[in-house]
Amino acid sequence: MKRFITKYLFISMFIFTAVFLAWGGMVYFLFKNSVRAALLPAVSRTQDNLAQQMRSQSVRNTKEHFKLAFTELERNDEVVFFSFLNEDKNLNYVEGLRKRKHILWALNVEYPVKTDDKIVGWIKIWPSPEMSLKAFFSDKNVLIIALSFFLAGMLVFAVTAVYVTVQLLRPLYEFREAVRNLSGSGNTAEVKFKHKTGLWKDMADYLKRLNSRVVDINTTVQMLFSVSKTLTSQVDMNHIFNVVLGIIQKKFPDAMCAVVLPGEDGSLKVAAKRGYSQNFARSLKMEIGNPVSEAIILCKMSAIKDLNSFDERLVKDFLSEGAVTQINIPLLDENNSCMGVLNVSGKSNDIFDSDIADTISTVGKYLSIAMRNAKMYDKVQELNRRLETEVNITSNELLQTNARLIRKVRDIKALSDISAFASAKFDLTAITAFVIQKITEITGMETSAVMVKNAAGKYVFLKGSFSIDPAALDEQRFDSGNCGIIGEIEKERRSVILPKAADVKQKAAEFDALLPITSAAFVPIENNGNIDGIIISVNKFGSEILESDLNIIEHIAVLFSGILEKIKLYSKLEKKISELTFMQKISSTVSMAPNLEKTLAAITDVTKDAFRADLCAILLYDSASSQLVTQPGAFFTGGSDKVMLRIHKDDDRYISAKIFRDGIAYLSDNAMTDPSINNQKTKEWGIDSIIAVPLINDEKPIGVLMVGRHEHGVYGEEDKNLVVMISNHAAVLIENANLYDALSTCKVQ
């Protein structure tokens, strides 16, 4: 179709041009005839003058005569320029431009000069354009002129059509064909244009570049597909490295590539390479400034345009291979830590553009995933091996489970027996004897002993230890200073086995002196991180101490720790009972005829002894002076007279005044630094632990009971509660004494 249009368009154009030229020649001929006829009256006289002059040989070549002959034309305003030509049309006479500077040289007419019917010369005239047009139109040539303009317009249209066809339609058709070929094949060889200049050439270049980009993308996709197929079908990293590097070099034949991994010795190991020579280093130095090292350290891609800009010492291995430019892609694990670097180098500066860098970066990401998968595969394989091993071990252990279960049941029963026995007893000697008996039964050890730490921090034997005379053990006192094995247990806080007699003599000679020992186990009794005692089990005749025996002794030690705690709690209970007896003493010290002063002294004395106080005082409220007055019988280790005070009930410097007003008991375990206690006296007295309780009778405060110690942290909530109980009881006794004194006074009166 394109050829058909072009062929017949050009044929039509040729025919139309020929017709137009013929028509133009005819119009030009008519035009000249009209001009010739218009000038003929003026030229005829000049013709006659020249003809007459030509007949006279004497004046034929005189310039003045020619000028005289052309006088008529010289005066004619419609003639711009004229000349005379010989019969062979060679210029003979010419007159320069006199009337106008510019004329239409193509617009001229010629007239012959004849003598005796023989042409002897030619008059050539250039008329004015205005006169020419006037002459042409005056000859009624309007139809010819209209047809001329029509043909000229048709010619312009034809030329425009040809130009549009050649410069627009035909290239556009070619462009469409090129795009169709490109979309079908993606081959740059199909992009062909005959137009080598102008806009279409630029469009062709763009299209070729686009086609090249499409080809590169297709190649890249195929390369990435090959890489993906390799990564999903292989787990051997060396094979993966070689295949991926081979694919990269196939895509970029002029490139050199390698996978560099950090070594355990701090160097960089070249795990695989392509394009580099055999002499390329198998390891590189991990140095700051080295582009490969920085990619590993910073975990970022680095693109180097010119390796010569680096210190030659840092990149000499690459420069020796002819590398000029380089890309380093970090291979990251799931935690974004660098596992290695994919290095790609080129021997020219323009080998890597942004698209190539993106492609290599994508390959690096794929390679990172492959390395992660390989590590995960290795982990799975290791887990499988471990699972197989554990299954085998478990199978072997299951064969021994029944025997061990029987032993565990026996051990649990023994522990249950000990718990049941200890729960009904508070006699530590009887409990110790029962525990030693059970240890001997369960473990087969020949004898055992239990040592506990006393208040002085010394370890002493409980009665029944080693089944020997208690008198031989009463004087034995051990600690970390005089017994090495105890020092080791307190330092390491774990059980110690001495499997040989030599070990016993070296580390526990103090015990070997009490009875012959060939092997022994020392198990600490711990409570809240503190070692409260030690269970010692020994063999006299060299029997082996099994791990299972040590475990049951450790369980018994834990149980015995609870027994000791229970006994301590029982002791505390007894202490509380003892403390309550002090209240009974307070009541019993008051005679049948109570006296206030004696009552206060008795209460103070009993309370001081109950709390081992350094300060004990009762302050009663004097309503007349609104003061709290320290009563006689107050006790202070630094002198009782120092605490004989009178304190106004609104004096905020004294905690006793605040307690009296608030009616709330107060406890401070560090009064020297307590911001709520700003009494300078308390600091002068050195009282660091203090309990202050209001004395209340019939919901009305009558005074304050204070108890204090120089040491801090010696009193707790239980102590405060006991003081509250004492204060309540004391308030009643004080009120009774006041009533008795009041009755006595009335009786006397």
Features:
749 residues, alpha+beta, 7-stranded antiparallel β-sheet, 6-stranded antiparallel β-sheet, 53% helix
Describe this structure in words.
The chain is α+β, with helices and mostly antiparallel strands. A hairpin with a 5-residue loop joins strand 5 and strand 6 (268-274). Helix 1 (2-55) packs across helix 4 (129-138) and helix 5 (142-185) packs parallel to helix 6 (198-233). It starts with a helix and ends with a helix. The model has no long low-confidence stretch (mean pLDDT 77).
Rg calculated over all Cα atoms: 65 Å
Count the E strands. Answer: 22
Distance between the termini: 153 Å
SSE class: alpha+beta
What is the average of the pLDDT values?
77
| Largest sheet entry | 7 strands, antiparallel
Q: Please, how many helices?
A: 20
- CA-based shape: elongated
